Amino acid sequence: HDRIPAIFPVNGMLHFMAGGIGFLGLIVATITFGLRFIRLRQWIRAAASLLTGAFFTFGFMGIASGPPRPATMITFYLAVLVSWLWVFALSSWLMADRPPATHLAQRTST
């Protein structure tokens, strides 16, 4: 039931590898932005970023450690949900922090 097959199909291996690369990228992004927000003294954003990265790492390690169990799956799904909320929040923060755009006509009229 909960056994890993002796032969791992190629598409399964590619899925696992691509997911691992994407998940690693997400974890690195949370750490990178967490450290950036620390340098900017934006403590709430830093904490949200670093805690999201830690929670996602925990969830990913759980799912990658062996056969899926209900608690492991729920934890991983919650980690994915929290990660998507972080991506949404990060997008909002970055959009709010950018300088106002100038109209194209204003840039070319000088």
Write the layout of secondary structure elements.
Layout: H1 10-39, H2 43-64, H3 70-97, H4 104-108
Helix pairs in contact: 1-2, 2-3
Model regions low in confidence, pLDDT < 50 over at least 5 residues = none
Radius of gyration: 19 Å
Structural class: mainly alpha
Shape field: elongated
Query: What share of the residues lie within helices?
Result: over 70%
Strand content: under 5%
Q: What's the short story on this structure?
A:
The chain has 110 residues and is mainly α. It has helices at 10-39, 43-64, 70-97, 104-108.
Describe the protein in words.
The protein is elongated, with a radius of gyration of 19 Å. With 110 residues, it is mainly alpha-helical. The chain has helices at 10-39, 43-64, 70-97, 104-108. The protein is built from 4 helices and no strands. The protein is 77% helix and 0% strand. Helix 1 runs antiparallel to helix 2 and helix 2 (43-64) runs antiparallel to helix 3.
Which keywords apply here?
single chain; 110 residues; mainly alpha; 4 helices
